[in-house]
Amino acid sequence: MAIIRLENKEFYNITETALLLGIHHTTLRQWHREHKIKPARKNAAGHYIYNEADMQLIRRYAFGKLPAFSVNPAAWESK
Question: Is the pTM of this model over 0.85?
Answer without folding.
Answer: no
